[in-house]
Give the backbone structure.
Amino acid sequence: GAVVSQHPSRVICKSGTSVKIECRSLDFQATTMFWYRQFPKQSLMLMATSNEGSKATYEQGVEKDKFLINHASLTLSTLTVTSAHPEDSSFYICSARDPWGVSNQPQHFGDGTRLSIL
Amino acid sequence: AQSVAQPEDQVNVAEGNPLTVKCTYSVSGNPYLFWYVQYPNRGLQFLLKYITGDNLVKGSYGFEAEFNKSQTSFHLKKPSALVSDSALYFCAVRDMNNNAGNMLTFGGGTRLMVKP
């Protein structure tokens, strides 16, 4: 089955640091990946849609310059939280669009990254 | 626009008893419906889906869900709960007529607590 690997699983860093999170599709090519943010005890909020070879599409209210997304290859998308502050602390989850179409699962999820900014 | 509602923040059941986690949806066209489970500090794991066909869908770990078009519901069920089923459950919908790259809309999640 389709596997998505997300790294790192946990990051603790100081305020002002930039943090990069990687999302890789291990056994399939993912032209589209999604980045979500999940607050404690809440649902997933779609932040942006990452398309290989083009600019990401951000959801309303998500700062493009704060959350930089790069999807330079068919198997890797990265989310960089620039100059992170404590309010950026959250659980970030990526997913990759199913390559065989919606008749299977529409998205395959990574295991998430717990980001803690001190 | 599409939306999903999970009316219960938490469901408590005793081990061995049947469980139901509720979900209702709203889409403009025909829905694709999904259930995912999330364990602590993990991503979402796919449980089951409804696309077309039989209204009763069977999925992983003994879970099933019933699609009810008239009530716009897709409740998750299991005949006999296990302590290991304790987790966060998300219902999700995609509008079949929406070509938004497999965009999913998630419900708010329901925490299932199964007590021994």
